[in-house]
Design a protein that fits this description.
Order of helices and strands: HHHHHHHEEHHHHHHH
Number of strands: 2
Number of helices: 14
Distance between the termini: 23 Å
Radius of gyration: 20 Å
Oligomer: single chain
Structural class: mainly alpha
Strand order of the largest sheet: 1-2
Shape: globular
Number of domains: 1
CATH topology: ABC transporter involved in vitamin B12 uptake, BtuC
CATH architecture: Orthogonal Bundle
CATH class: Mainly Alpha
Length: 330
């Protein structure tokens, strides 16, 4: 799963540089381990299986959104509408489940429509950015406003409950194992398979040098569009998880999650300029953000200082990750 661009050639002055080149997510892995220890120090109960399951359930949506963002970043693009897509799919599936009675058939049909909606949003982003050649950061900011407005039209007020069948399944157990661990296992397998596909290689090649990729015959426009479609797909999956965790619909639930997903990608060792990074790193970056929030809480930080401390901690960790990434690429 540690796919990276292989076009450029780098000089190495030591084993650490070579190690970071091969496994750019290592700094994020070390940071996650350190944060787990800090959580255990301030609250020993935070390392129990129940607590870790709760943490994973809460931040699974962010993990999926960070993965979604990664496939776009591979090609040197960015998607500021990922959180808005999450919100739109969230309210759409909740409203459809409620309207159709909340039974098993209604749940599966609503989820299928949610996936199609995520794919459609990703396709729209891909067309306006790659085909129409608009600036990614501006175009996806505009589509985020559009998707948010659509979500508010579907569900103007937050609070519509999801069917009990859905959220109880997400928070429940299967054969004694928390259901969220099955989701994580399926996600790992999916990402591992995708890392060996031609599409991921093409995304990395486009991000490394778009002009060179075009000259070698790669379908640059089509590849970038596919990256956005993948982002829409994983954003829809993230919406399923946030719905299972909150058991309700909220048209603004994905608000700041977009920027968190971008931060998770960078924390995981990926370069926003494209052509370098790993999905594993993005997953670890999302866990880093979650663990930072937990540490700040367990430290007993006053509520008025929590945002300040969280922001400062993420900034410091981000600096460490960026410096390690530069050492690997320079």
């Amino acid at each position: 799963m540690a796919e990276t661009a292989t076009v450029p050639t780098y000089r190495r002055t030591g084993g650490i540089g070579r190690l970071l080149e091969r496994y750019p997510f290592l700094p994020a892995l070390v940071i996650v381990a350190a944060l787990l220890l800090l959580n255990g120090f301030f609250s020993p109960n935070s390392l129990t299986l129940r607590a870790l399951t709760g943490l994973l359930s809460t931040y699974m949506a962010l993990i999926l959104l960070a993965i979604a963002q990664t496939y776009v970043v591979y090609a040197g693009d960015i998607d500021l509408s990922a959180g808005a897509i999450l919100s739109l799919v969230n309210v759409a599936i909740v409203v459809l489940m409620e309207r159709w009675g909340g039974g098993a058939g209604a749940v599966f049909l609503a989820l299928a429509i949610g996936l199609l909606l995520g794919l459609a949003c990703g396709l729209v982003n891909g067309l306006v950015v790659a085909a129409l050649r608009l600036q990614a950061i501006v175009a996806t900011f505009a589509t985020s406003i559009f998707f948010t407005g659509f979500a508010l039209y579907v569900l103007p007020v937050a609070g519509t409950p999801a069917p009990a069948l859905f959220w109880r399944t997400y928070g429940g157990r299967l054969f004694g194992v928390p259901f969220v661990f099955y989701i994580l296992a399926a996600l790992v397998i999916l990402v591992a398979v995708m890392s060996r596909t031609r599409l991921v290689t093409q995304l990395l090649a486009v991000g490394d040098d778009q002009q060179a990729a075009y000259q070698t015959g790669l379908p640059v426009i089509t590849t970038r569009i596919k990256g956005y479609v993948l982002c829409g797909l994983f954003s829809a999956l993230a919406a399923f998880c946030i719905t299972g965790d909150t058991a309700s619909g909220d048209p603004l639930v994905g608000g700041k999650m977009t920027l968190y997903s971008v931060a998770a990608v960078v924390l995981g060792g990926s370069a926003l300029s494209g052509g370098w990074g790993t999905v594993v790193g993005s997953l670890l970056g999302a866990l880093t953000i979650g663990l930072i929030n937990s540490v700040v809480f367990f430290m007993g930080t006053p509520s008025e200082w929590q945002n300040f401390v969280q922001g400062l901690a993420i900034l410091l960790v981000l600096m460490a990750g960026v410096l390690a990434g530069r050492r690997a690429r320079s």
